[in-house]
């Protein structure tokens, strides 16, 4: 498979390693304006860039009929526009706030726990995420997915960065500590006890492997998919 890397930073380099190990070829390593690159021999593009570049990168690929995987966070106010374009152009697209198998299992655990906790009025939920100090966005895309999944199954209607006084808002605390690849913890607290679930990435390999697996899965497909489709969970 010929892969174009849209973004060649920490994740782009990790994805390159995994892709080469799995027998793929990297045809472009793009770190600036995508418009000047030739996409005729690209089978799939993988975007791990920056929030302000993701929309242009993704829509360029869709218009060129190149399937595109995006893990970039912090651009989701334009997600619906991308989906509409993808449908209109009969393109292929997967976005995931987190591509690792472990976090996708954690997403399922979060939903299961939220459904149970929705019956119990005594517990309040909060989310904590910890990432490296170079991260541009806060809260993390993964923390937002976790909050939205909780909102779907409980009476919470919103999330808020840091503390909140509103009973229907989920507080998300974002901490920045050098070199931390990504930790997410969900805690339900009552006056009697605390229930917590946590995912801690040890490195970026899981994110990269998930993105390459998603790229292998989507080539020659049409449509908008998620990691649930890729992992069949
Ligand atoms: N979904 C997931 O599983 C994961 C998502 N991420 C997200 O991926 C993104 C990238 O993360 P890192 O690699 O750690 O960041 P990074 O800062 O190391 O790399 C981003 C790269 O994008 C480049 N860039 C700037 N403008 C660009 C443009 N117009 N087109 C293409 N590239 C451009 C920068 O030069 C930089 O090298 C972030 O949004 C992060 O939150 C990170 C890890 C896992
Ligand atoms: O920027 C990162 O590093 C990460 N970003 C993603 C996010 O915002 O959730 C995924 C992972 O936690 C690492």
UniProtKB/TrEMBL annotation:
<keyword id="KW-0521">NADP</keyword>
<protein>
    <recommendedName>
        <fullName>4-hydroxy-tetrahydrodipicolinate reductase</fullName>
        <ecNumber>1.17.1.8</ecNumber>
    </recommendedName>
</protein>
<feature type="domain" description="Dihydrodipicolinate reductase N-terminal">
    <location>
        <begin position="1"/>
        <end position="99"/>
    </location>
</feature>
<comment type="function">
    <text>Catalyzes the conversion of 4-hydroxy-tetrahydrodipicolinate (HTPA) to tetrahydrodipicolinate.</text>
</comment>
<keyword id="KW-0560">Oxidoreductase</keyword>
<feature type="binding site">
    <location>
        <position position="132"/>
    </location>
    <ligand>
        <name>(S)-2,3,4,5-tetrahydrodipicolinate</name>
    </ligand>
</feature>
<dbReference type="Pfam" id="PF01113">
    <property type="entry name" value="DapB_N"/>
</dbReference>
<keyword id="KW-0457">Lysine biosynthesis</keyword>
<dbReference type="InterPro" id="IPR023940">
    <property type="entry name" value="DHDPR_bac"/>
</dbReference>
<keyword id="KW-0520">NAD</keyword>
<keyword id="KW-0028">Amino-acid biosynthesis</keyword>
<comment type="subunit">
    <text>Homotetramer.</text>
</comment>
<dbReference type="GO" id="GO:0008839">
    <property type="term" value="F:4-hydroxy-tetrahydrodipicolinate reductase"/>
</dbReference>
<keyword id="KW-0963">Cytoplasm</keyword>
<comment type="similarity">
    <text>Belongs to the DapB family.</text>
</comment>
<dbReference type="InterPro" id="IPR022664">
    <property type="entry name" value="DapB_N_CS"/>
</dbReference>
<dbReference type="InterPro" id="IPR036291">
    <property type="entry name" value="NAD(P)-bd_dom_sf"/>
</dbReference>
<comment type="pathway">
    <text>Amino-acid biosynthesis; L-lysine biosynthesis via DAP pathway; (S)-tetrahydrodipicolinate from L-aspartate: step 4/4.</text>
</comment>
<feature type="domain" description="Dihydrodipicolinate reductase C-terminal">
    <location>
        <begin position="102"/>
        <end position="231"/>
    </location>
</feature>
<feature type="binding site">
    <location>
        <begin position="141"/>
        <end position="142"/>
    </location>
    <ligand>
        <name>(S)-2,3,4,5-tetrahydrodipicolinate</name>
    </ligand>
</feature>
<dbReference type="InterPro" id="IPR022663">
    <property type="entry name" value="DapB_C"/>
</dbReference>
<feature type="binding site">
    <location>
        <begin position="71"/>
        <end position="73"/>
    </location>
    <ligand>
        <name>NAD(+)</name>
    </ligand>
</feature>
<keyword id="KW-0220">Diaminopimelate biosynthesis</keyword>
<feature type="active site" description="Proton donor">
    <location>
        <position position="135"/>
    </location>
</feature>
<dbReference type="Pfam" id="PF05173">
    <property type="entry name" value="DapB_C"/>
</dbReference>
<feature type="active site" description="Proton donor/acceptor">
    <location>
        <position position="131"/>
    </location>
</feature>
<feature type="binding site">
    <location>
        <begin position="96"/>
        <end position="99"/>
    </location>
    <ligand>
        <name>NAD(+)</name>
    </ligand>
</feature>
<dbReference type="InterPro" id="IPR000846">
    <property type="entry name" value="DapB_N"/>
</dbReference>
